[in-house]
Amino acid sequence: MKLRKLLSLKRWSHILLNSWQYVISPSVTLADKLFFTIPVLLYWVLPDIMPFMPIDDIGVTMLLMGWFVSRMDRKYPALKSGR
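Above: the chain sequence. Below: its structure as tokens.
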């Protein structure tokens, strides 16, 4: 059941759309936006275990996006229902 939810197209489309909406929303504080973008940018820029292999970078970014969207959905419920 958990793997099915993890691979759900509906869930990932929600995460991709809402992560961008939260990043560009003026209602979300700058600190919340930076709390997501700084770790992602650092992970992409700093050297890692598999250089020149972006698959692990994309995987970590997707995990952080899922965390960010679930956190913002709880913190800003008005933005979630406004769409």
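Residues 15 and 63 are 10 Å apart (CA to CA).
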